[in-house]
Each structure stands twice: as C-alpha cells, then as structure tokens.
Design a protein that fits this description.
By secondary structure, the protein is of the alpha/beta class. Among the domains are: about 120 residues, 3-Layer(aba) Sandwich (Rossmann fold); about 130 residues, no CATH class; about 160 residues, Rossmann fold (3-Layer(aba) Sandwich); about 160 residues; about 100 residues, no CATH class. Helix 16 runs antiparallel to helix 21 and helix 17 packs antiparallel against helix 18. The longest helix has 26 residues. InterPro entries: P-loop_NTPase (IPR027417), PDDEXK-like_dom_sf (IPR011604), PDDEXK_AddAB-type (IPR038726), Restrct_endonuc-II-like (IPR011335). This is PD-(D/E)XK nuclease superfamily protein. It holds the Pfam family PDDEXK_1.
Length: about 950
C-alpha cells in the first residue's frame, strides 16, 4: 500500500514542529481520523511528547462563543412561535403546528445554508418576492448570474399567481424578518447554532473573536468541500500565518479539470489560494495497474452474503481492512452476515432498523387506530405482532393460547378489555383519553423497555443507548408541545416518528484493530490495505436527489450555493481517494433490476474502468437454476417405524378410515401419510376470508335443526310445511355462527363483516336446499340425520397375503324417503356441499381411479355403502346438494353412461366395492410407498402445499449451499 495520508501528515508535523506540539491545534471534519493520527504521531516520534489539541471543525469553531447549542426541536418551536407573532402583526390568522411543520424544516435548512455561504438574507428572499428589482439590487452580479435569476422568475410567474403562490410570496417577504427575530431570540436565550457561529466569526461578531490566539498554529487536515465561511476564515488565518492545510489529493483528478473528484480541492488551492502543506500531489491513480474486484449480486442483501464468503477466505490479520457503506441501509444485513472478524462500527446502529423502533412504531399505530376510529378494538394482526415481538416477553404458553383462541373464534378484532396476558409492557394497550397524554404514555413504554432490558443478566448497551436517546427526544418534544395549542394525536405521532428516526447508537470497538465499518463520508483521511465498498449502484453513488429547499437551482447557482453537481463531486472524491492507497479493492453492487435498483454499477466505476489503468475483474453472482430431479422427490417407504405405526393404528387399534381420508389418498398418497399417519396438523390460523369448512358446518347444523322435528315420523310430511321455517333460518344461522366461533351472538348487529357475509351465503344456500325439496317432491320422511357415531363397518383386506380388517367410518348427513309428483317413493342418501363439487362426471372409470374425477361421488357412494351394510336398507340413491349448481345440474350424479339410478346404480355400487377394496389393499401394501401424485391440482388453501410442491427445492438448495 502507498504511504497512508495521515502517516505523511504525522511525518510533516514532526519535521515542522519538533517535539513540542502543546500549542498546536489539529482540526478534522469528523472524529474518526483523530485516533489514527495519534497513533501515527506516536510511531513517528517514538517517545513521549507534548500532545497537540485535537478538534472537529464544529468543536473548533464552538470555541468562539459561550452560548449553548440549541437543539433542533428547540429551534423548530422557537421558529413556530415567532412566525405566528409575525402573522398576528400582519393581521393574519396564526397557523397550526400541523400547517407550519412541513415548511419549518426547509426554512431552518435554508437559513443554515445561507449562513454557511454568507448569502445576504434580504437580497435573496426579496429576489424571490419581486424580480423587478433585479437590475438595481444585483448590479454587482455578472450578466450570466442575472440571467439565471430572470429565468427562474419568468418560469414562476408566467401563469400568474395562484392562491398557493401568493401565500409563498408573502412567506418569502416575511422570511428576512423571521430570520432576524429567530437569531435575536436564540441570542437572548443564550443559545446559538453552528450556522450562526460560522457567520458571526466571518462578520467579527463572535463573543470570543480572537479564540485562535490560544494556538501557535492550526492544522486543518483532510478538508475537501468548503463552504464560503470556511474558505474566507481559512484564507484569513493562512494570511495571518496561523493556519496550515493538508489536502489529501491525487494529481490524477486534481490536475484534470474534467475530473469532478478534484472540483473542491482545485477550488481550495487555485481559487481560494490555500497552500497544501504536503506540496504537489503525486499521480498515484494514473500509474496503478492493480486489479479491482467488481461483484454484481443478485439482490441488495446478497451483497453482504458475497462479502461473507470473501472475508472468510482472507485471514491476513496484519493488514487493515474496512467495509464502506455507500448504501448505509445495508448495515443491519451486513451485521447479520459477518463472520467472526471483530468489527468496529461507528456508522451508528439506526433506531429505525432495531426491534425497539418496531415496538414503538406498533404502539403509535395502535393508538392512532384507536383514536381515529374511536373504538376499543384492535385487529388480530396487531395482537400477533405484539406477542411475537422479542421485547414484549410474552410467554410461549400465552402465545399459543392467544393464537388458538383467535383462530378458534376467528377473531378479526379483539376488544381491549379482553386482553389478558403478561408482558414486559403492561401499559401498551391502555387507551389514551386526551391527546396531551400521548408522549407521557410513550415515555412510560420507553421506561418499561429500559427496565426490562436492565433486568437481563447482560445489559444490551446498544438498546440502552437507543432508548435513552429516544427518551431525551420525547422529553424535548413534550416541552415544545406544552407551549402550543392542543395537537391532534395523528400529528403528534407523525412528528414523533420524524424526531426519533435519526437516532442511532455507535457500536464501539477498537478503531485500530479488526475490520472497520463506516459510511463513505466517515472514511475521509483514512486509508486501509483492503476496502470493501457495498451498495455501489448508480442512484446511490452518487445520490440522485438533494435536500428539499425553497431556493430554486437557478438562484442557487447565481449565489454559489451547493447544487446537485456539488454532491456528485464530493461523492466522486470520497470514492476515488481509496484507489490512491488500498491494495485490495472489492466493490459490490446490486445487479438485479427491480423497483429500487436499475441493476447498474455507479458511473464512477465505469469512468475509472474506461480512463484508468486499473484491471477491473468482473464477477457476476449466478442464481442456481433448479431442475426437477426424481432423487429429491419425497417418498415415504412403508417400513420400519412408518409401517409399525400404520399396522398398530389401523389394523390392531382399528383407527377409522373415513370417506375424506379415502379421497385424500386418491388425490395424494403423500398427503394421506402426512395427515392420517404422521398426524401433521395445520397450525391454527385466521383467514381474511371465511373458511368454507366453517360455512359447511353452519349449513349442516342448521339443516339438522330444521329437519330434526320430522325424524322417525312414521307418516310422510308434505314438503310445503318447510315453507314455514324460512323465517327461522336467519336466527338459526346467527346462533350457529356464534357457536362455531365461540362468541355470543344475539342478533345480526353483533356480527363482524365476514360473519355477515357468511350469514348471507348460508341463508341463501339453506333456502335453496329447501326450495328444491318443495319444488321436486310432494312429501318426505326422515330416516337418518347428521349421525356421526353409529356408522362404522369392518372391511376385509389382504395384507402381506393375510386377511386383515380395517374399519370404515361414515358420516350420514341425511337419509330420507321422498314422494315424487308422479307418486313414486325413492330412498335417498343426501350430502350437502358448499364448494365447487359437481354431480357431473365424464367416465366412471375416471371416477374410480387415482386423482378421481369426482371426489363427491366417491364420498357419497362410500356413505351409501356403509349405511346399507349397517342397516340392511338397499337401493339408496346418492344425491348431492351443491348449492352453486343444483338449479342447473340437479342432485343426481350423471355421466356419459347415464344417470346413477336403478340397475345402472346397482352395478356401479358393486364396482365401487371392488374399487374400495383395491385402494385399501394398496394403502396397506408395504411395497407401494407414499408419494405425491404430480397430476393433482394444488390449491393455495391446501395446508400441505409446501411439502409436495416446494420440498424438492429445499433439498436442492441445501445441497447447493
């Protein structure tokens, strides 16, 4: 590696100043390089010396005043108060905090920028107010600068002033007065801000104007982009012989005016006239032919996975290394992907990416929902999010109980008074009565979190820091809110989120050991043997947007204020300087095109690849293409423990086999194994759409209630008597829905939205069933009704050449005798269906087959067979009441061969018995394993989908890792 910049600085300091550095001030843009320069000074001197004094630029300038620094929130509330005073003086209505807040941030930002760059406040804002004064007020500007200003004004006023424009014109006229009053108010309170400190120093208004006299020499190290105040002060101190400047630059971009990376240092040296204490810059980049490793990942997060593999292979602890985040949103994924490399992170762990923000945000959303909708209920998703959050510490027992109750009762909303479980945040769901209670209540939540964290054996310092900073910010907001009119909960929450979002906590380690993690801006002045730059995408490096401002680009150019091109130049410099020193350069970018990425590397990379002698070695992460492979299919052999359980359950213990179990096997033998042998049950859940099985249960039970009074009647009952029950259907359905969801429902007003839909559908289906009976039959007699206990039947099968028995089990919905309009009496077995079943089939051979064409027919013949064998009754016609289709298709099964009645029915019943015997023998044939039928349609609601659709992918992925 080339000699590091700070090593060169340390050597020059020794040469210039000898051993006494006690009256030397060394100033950096940020704190990070101070530790490194101290080490290099110790290495250069090799003995004890009087240390220089180290400062950041803001700490150094702060020596010029005794005033305290005003907090950002404090400045905002001061600005709001003064602005409303000015409105009152103009005879206008005061603005609410909600109205003023969106523009306050922009006003404060613009005030700060205008101070840093010493722009005359009155001039620039009056220019925004009236362009007729351009010729008089801006005679000192060049024609080009005046043209920029005119161009802006013409584009603004060409269409005349709307109401909004008129409001802004008045605001711009008011802003110079607002600026002056704001500064006066801060001064009277003994407060200041950094833009004011800078401007006061330049205008000789600082309380301690000669603070630099305390130092024999001031060394400014590694500065690049200077604002106008810094440039003026630096030039002044250089002329006084007080200041030296160490610029970290390379002639590759410094001497070439087309290279944007050198823009600011060229300006500092050639325009401002600052002298580089290190002399002329070498051409390091232009002469290097090293290899640069460029990695295109298949996704944003994949960059960190690629980095893991590279770091695992590079174990040279003698070399220094740094991970530079062009995209600082990659910090958390990076921390989750790092190998054991002893990281030191000063980028700061952001509150917004921590579990703490998640729980605070959930609290705010809960109380926003409660306050806006004026209700005492919250959604089940909120409850599930809360109980599953690691910081709430809800016990596993309570979690399972809550999830089961929500699923069983299908509770889409839960009343606050019904929340009874222990957690680390007992006040979380306590309603806020008055808007003024919002922040105190949130502070209570923060205190509970602090107590909960401190109760652990090992305090999590990062979480502790984040919570303490959050509490400070909330207290500042609370003080500010006390000075203004009552604010809505929604606005307070919006402001709280904005105020706490910037909070972060440094993860401190040893900055001189291990791998360093930082943003590109923090890497100023620092050099490493190996650098790994993450997020080097176009649009991120450089960024494509600037901070919001009221000052348009044309005026910014005219007054020399920062523009987007300045940001590009700074980003280019921060990127290029690592090519001066580092030997191992690894650059990662997201090569995947999606809604947040163009999939292109930064143009800085393309520029260097085209112009320099570096060898860019591109590596593209490949997404493994998975192919179907029979060796990865899930196949369950009937041997060992599997066969032992099957034999014990079904042969020895006579576990019952239902019609549903039979059709499950026909659809997927693997699912039969998972469900009926392995007993893998679907976990309790709640659906945003009501469950069809619940609807079916409600309809079956209500139909039973209607027909139950007629069971075992010896005489036939006229079907028109069913008409009298129509007015009872709705109340029956409401009570049944309440029973199914384990809630008390007395009327339709107690139903939630999905239950109302279920009520409507169930009532319509039941009426349809009854109307069908009334229209097609004169009278009926109920033989059996909803019997799920009495119909079990031993059935012989062959197992390993030996006759064994299994037990069949039938649930009989309804068996009746009906009198047709031509006075025929028909015995029927009736099955109700609410889904997409049909009475139509094409070929009976396709019904009596795996992946059966008509599952309902198999099930109904199964019920009929069990009933006939148990009771001795014969010639039962299978009827299927499919509510969606019975008006068009009827209720009798029919195919190409005919309708299942009379002799055709008797023949097919015999065929069914043979088919049943074959299938049961296959199930218990040890030579035939359980495997999924690939021809079966898989429905999204199938709880076993992942087992037989995704399992092979999981296996392949595990093998490829």
């Amino acid at each position: 590696m080339q000699t590091a910049f700070l090593k060169l600085v340390a050597a020059d300091i020794q040469q210039r100043f000898g051993n006494d550095l006690s009256e030397i001030a060394i100033v950096f843009n940020n704190k990070r390089p101070i530790t490194y320069l101290k080490k290099h000074l110790a290495d250069v001197y090799g003995q004890a010396i009087w240390s220089p004094q180290f400062f950041t630029i803001q700490e150094f300038f702060k020596l010029s005043t005794n005033d305290a620094e005003a907090s950002p929130l404090g400045q905002f509330f001061q600005l709001f108060k003064i602005h409303n005073e000015l409105l009152a003086a103009e005879g206008k209505e005061p603005e609410t905090l909600e109205e003023f807040y969106p523009i306050a941030e922009i006003i404060l930002s613009d005030f700060g920028q205008l101070d840093y760059d010493l722009v005359p406040i009155d001039q620039i804002y009056m220019e925004l107010y009236d362009n007729t004064k351009i010729d008089i007020a801006f005679q000192h500007l060049t024609q080009e600068q005046q043209g920029f200003i005119r161009q802006f004004w013409q584009s603004f006023s060409i269409a005349g002033h709307s109401g909004v424009q008129e409001r802004f014109l008045q605001l711009w006229k008011r802003l110079p007065i607002l600026y002056t009053r704001f500064k006066e108010t801060l001064k009277a309170a003994g407060q200041t801000n950094y833009p004011t400190i800078y401007r006061d120093l330049v205008e000789s208004k600082a309380t301690l104007q000669d603070f630099t006299s305390s130092f024999k020499q001031i060394l400014f190290v590694g500065f690049n982009a200077l604002n106008r105040a810094e440039a003026k002060l630096f030039r002044q101190w250089q002329e006084e012989g007080k200041a030296l400047f160490y610029f970290d630059a390379d002639s590759y971009y410094l001497d070439d005016n087309m290279q944007e990376a050198g823009l600011f240092i060229r300006r500092n040296i050639f325009q401002t006239g600052l002298v580089n204490a290190l002399g002329s810059s070498p051409n390091i980049i232009g002469n290097r032919t090293s290899t640069v490793n460029l990695y295109a990942s298949t996704g944003k997060i994949s960059q960190t996975k690629l980095l893991y593999d590279i770091l695992e292979k590079q174990n040279n602890k003698e070399q220094t290394s740094a991970i530079l985040l062009a995209d600082e949103n990659l910090l958390v994924p990076l921390l989750q992907s790092l190998p054991d490399v002893n990281p030191n992170i000063t980028t700061g762990y952001p509150l917004t990416q921590s579990p703490i923000y998640g729980i605070l945000d959930l609290w705010m959303e809960v109380h926003l929902e409660i306050s806006q909708l004026k209700k005492n209920k919250i959604s089940y998703q909120t409850i599930e999010t809360f109980i599953n959050h690691p910081l709430t510490q809800v016990s596993l027992e309570d979690k399972l109980q809550i999830q089961k109750e929500i699923a069983d009762k299908q509770l889409f909303e839960i009343a606050l008074e019904e929340l009874h479980f222990k957690s680390a945040l007992p006040q979380f769901f306590v309603p806020i009565v008055h808007a003024a209670q919002l922040i105190p209540s949130l502070i209570t939540i923060v205190d509970d979190l602090l107590y909960s964290i401190s109760a652990h054996e090992r305090i999590r310092q990062i979480d502790n820091n984040l919570l303490i900073e959050t509490k400070k910010t909330l207290n500042q907001l609370l003080l500010g809110f006390e000075t203004v009119a009552p604010l809505s909960i929604s606005f307070q929450i919006g402001l709280i989120k904005k105020a706490i979002s910037p909070i972060n906590s440094a993860i401190e380690g040893n900055p001189l050991e291990g791998i360093q993690i930082m943003g590109l801006l923090e890497s100023r002045c620092l050099n490493f043997d190996n650098v790994y730059i993450l997020g080097a995408n176009e649009g991120i490096l450089p960024k494509t947007s600037n901070s919001p401002t009221f000052i348009p680009n044309s005026l910014r150019r005219a007054y020399g204020l920062p523009i987007l091109e300045n940001q590009d130049a700074l980003s280019a410099y921060l990127f290029y300087r690592h090519f001066q020193y580092s030997e191992g350069i690894h650059i990662f970018y997201n090569g995947l095109v999606d809604e947040s990425s163009t999939g292109e590397e930064s143009r800085f990379i393309k520029q260097l690849e085209f112009e320099s002698k570096f060898n860019f070695e591109r590596k593209i992460q490949q997404q493994t293409i998975q192919f179907a492979d029979k060796t990865t299919e899930i196949i369950i052999e009937k041997q060992g423990e599997v066969w032992g359980k099957m034999y014990q359950d079904f042969i020895v213990d006579q576990k019952r086999i239902s019609a549903t179990a039979l059709t499950t096997y026909l659809q997927s033998p693997l699912q039969f194994f998972l469900k009926h042998i392995a007993n893998i049950k679907e976990p309790p859940s709640i659906s945003q759409e009501f469950e069809m099985n619940k609807l079916g249960t409600v309809i079956h039970n209500v139909m039973e209630k209607i027909f139950l009074p007629f069971k075992d009647e010896k005489d036939f009952t006229p079907t028109n008597i069913l008409q009298q029950h129509f007015n009872q259907i709705e109340s029956f359905v409401v009570r049944e829905i309440g029973f199914q969801y384990q809630v008390e429902l007395n009327s339709t007003s107690d139903l939630n939205s999905l239950q109302r839909i279920m009520l409507k559908i169930a009532c319509e289906y039941i009426k349809m069933y009854l109307e069908y009976d009334i229209a097609n039959y004169k009278a009926f007699r109920i033989i059996e009704l909803e019997n799920d206990t009495d119909y079990t039947l031993p059935f012989p099968i062959s197992v390993n050449g030996k006759e064994e028995q299994v037990t069949l089990y039938g649930i009989i919905d309804r068996v009746d005798e009906v009198v047709t309009h031509d006075d025929r009496i028909i015995s029927r077995i009736v099955d109700y269906k609410t889904g997409g079943d049909s009475v139509i089939f094409r070929e009976i051979d396709q019904v009596f087959a795996p992946n059966t064409e008509n599952k309902a027919l198999i099930q109904t013949l199964f019920y009929a067979y069990v009933f006939e064998q148990k009771t001795g009754r014969k010639q039962l016609e299978p009827h299927l009441y499919v509510a969606r289709k019975m008006r068009e298709e009827g209720t009798l099964f029919n195919g190409k061969e005919g309708v299942l009645t009379a002799d055709f029915l008797a023949f097919q019943k015999e065929n069914f018995v043979g088919f049943l015997s074959n299938i049961l023998s296959e199930i218990f044939n040890p030579e035939i394993p359980f495997r999924h039928n690939p021809d079966v349609t898989i429905y999204p609601s199938d709880p076993y989908t992942l087992f037989y659709r995704e399992a092979s992918k999981w296996v392949e992925n595990e093998e490829s890792v």
